[in-house]
Amino acid sequence: MPQSSVIDDLGAFIQASPTPFHATRTLADRLLAADYQRLDERDAWQLQPGGRYLITRNDSSLIALSLGEPGALERGLRMIGAHTDSPCLRVKPQPDLLQANLWQLGVEVYGGALLAPWFDRDLSLAGRVTLRDQQGQLHSRLLDFRQPLAIIPSLAIHLNRGVNDSLAINPQLHLPPLLAHASEPQRDVRSLLKDQLQREYPELQVDQVLDFELSFYDTQPPACIGVDGDFFAAARLDNLLSCHAGLRALLDSDGRQACLLVCTDHEEVGSSSCCGADGPFLEDLLQRLLPDAEQRIRCLQRSILVSADNAHALHPNFIDKHDGNHGPQLNGGPVIKINSNQRYATSSETAGLFRHLCQQAGVPVQSFVVRSDMGCGSTIGPITASRTGVRTVDVGVPTLAMHSVRELAGSRDPGYLIRVLREFYNCEELPG
């Protein structure tokens, strides 16, 4: 796929995916359009040789499975893992605030968000809502207001003269977005959601909004920027970029090998949930795919997981934040992430395989090691490796402004990642 087509498709994917719920629905819709069959974990499964399936959990995590040709499982699984969630502002259960005659919603910070970039942005609201209809039936539906309906105004410099020296943001006091003037009768979030439900689902006769999981997001669309279009800016690049690359690689693969795409929620808060990488979702699937324990272990020991999550690119204004020999460049290709303390699960064997695949795909490759005097983040790689015993390599596209409301990648790197992940899915022989 040409570079411009990759970027356009990635931009459309991100625009359709303002929350993990929407990302999972977008992934599922594209897989269903490619003739994948949806499985329900509550049903008995009849998996067929060569079958292609998808499973979702909590509406926010997804596993896609392509069984490949006869005998493919005996060669092991080619697995790619990513996550659907991103740092954001989540609406509290009882969020309505009335201050200075203005209607606001209280929020909670989800994940390790950079907070300053959220100010003075055109924000919208999306997520999942549980409701009761007029017949007493319960439903859950996804909502996306799409248009800007909120903003978090900065405090004028005249009232905070030292703001450019240091900015202390109190999430409780300073982050509630502003929605409207107070009105009579007083508005509340449930009436707002009820009206939106009726617009998006006119067939529903909504009696009561019972509960919700809602996130604010920046409405500014993705853009290819720079004098020569070298950069790609968007919200939620961490880690929808990797979800998209894994999806494109799976759909473009030759279908001969046994392949998994695992996109799970809650990575930004530790992955410990029923649908997170530290939960049983993947293991439950593997046990149903390979009920015999010995056969399952043999298969996993022949398998490899590529844990795809964005890497830190070298920032030109903060060169000293990187180890001198390990500063990945934008548009320099995917990055192999290495940490001796197992914050990343890469080994020399799995790194060697990934370098080999990059050479086979004609893709440049880089490496990242955090400075020895700084702490290191982590990914789903070590979690999945420790739970399943599968050999793992941690990789990712280099980005700037990670965990900001708007992040930056090189415009060529998403295509590079897709090419090497497709090569991985098509790889006939794995080491060991």
UniProtKB/TrEMBL annotation:
Its EC number is 3.4.11.-. The keyword Zinc applies. One of its GO terms (biological process) is proteolysis. It holds the Pfam family Peptidase_M18. One of its GO terms (cellular component) is cytoplasm. Gene3D superfamilies: Aminopeptidase i, Domain 2, Zn peptidases. Zn(2+) binds at H83, H158, H403. Belongs to the peptidase M18 family. NCBIfam families: PRK02813.1. PANTHER family: ASPARTYL AMINOPEPTIDASE. This is Probable M18 family aminopeptidase 2. It comes from Halopseudomonas yangmingensis. The lineage of its organism: Bacteria, Pseudomonadati, Pseudomonadota, Gammaproteobacteria, Pseudomonadales.
